[in-house]
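Reopening: structure tokens for the calcium ion complex, inputs below.
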Amino acid sequence: AKSEGRGTFRFFEAAMDERLQARRGLERDLRQALSDGALSVHYQPLEDCRTHRILGFEALVRWNHPERGMIPPSEFVPLAEESGLVMQLGEFVLRTACRDARNWPDPVKVAVNLSPIQFRHSDLPATILGILEEEGLPPHRLEIEVTEGVMIDDTERALAALTALKAAGVRIALDDFGTGYSSLSYLQKFTFDKLKIDRSFVQLMAENRESLSIIRTILALAKSLDIAVTAEGVETEEQRTLLKNESCNQLQGYLIGRPVPACELARFYEPA
Ligand code: C2E
Ligand code: CA
Ligand code: CA
Ligand code: CA
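Re-run output (same inputs, fresh job):
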């Protein structure tokens, strides 16, 4: 029994080792990808609910791995956060997004997701404003998307960074609204420009009374606070009509358009 126990232990040890090695390998590949251009940015349109006009695009990072093919951001963004690569990743996405957005007509905005880890650096606002300046994009055309995770480690620092960016004209959206634990308390700490309703609510809205009630409540709250609302994950005409009837401001989802490379966006807007 004793030797059997040791065998089991060795087995786990070997499995752990393998996982750790796979992770280290992926981390090494990500570092490489950041320097040799294997990362790219795709864009998904956001439309005005009433007029169907395109208001902007959300930048979503993509990794085309030489052996594994497309790796979704849900797999490598957390890895970048744990391994210290997220600053470099974040700068790459922001710079690429600003450069691409310069080719779009003036009111069309670009939205960029920021990791809470990026807010640990006190010079984040200066870095962002520096990139806007270097790429020649006016601050009012950038929207940054943060989740409530941003307020968790160092609320004061995060608030200072958001306030500085907002003062410079950058718009600030609260992403995945409704999925966290304390979204409401953040609304009294900072005046967000926009709330993005998580797609889990939109997906259930048509068949689930509770989801529809939650969406109505978020819309009423946002209206009274004078904050715009985007509904995420809109996939059907039925969802689009329901959201329009509820006076939602903006829609995003596969129905309006999937994320695509910058070169495929011209069909969404009249060129500048
Ligand atoms: P998110 O910010 O909530 O982005 C929306 C996600 O929903 C995207 O997944 C998008 O492709 C997907 N989506 C959009 N419309 C629909 C729809 O109608 N149906 C369904 N089923 N899905 C839809 P993606 O691109 O895989 O990104 C996943 C998450 O990874 C993002 O969630 C965001 O949290 C993170 N992420 C992506 N790019 C970046 C980045 O550049 N920086 C950081 N820090 N995080 C990023
Ligand atoms: Ca987002
Ligand atoms: Ca979201
Ligand atoms: Ca999400």
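The first helix runs from residue 2 to 36. The mean pLDDT is 92. Marking as resolved unless the reporter disagrees.
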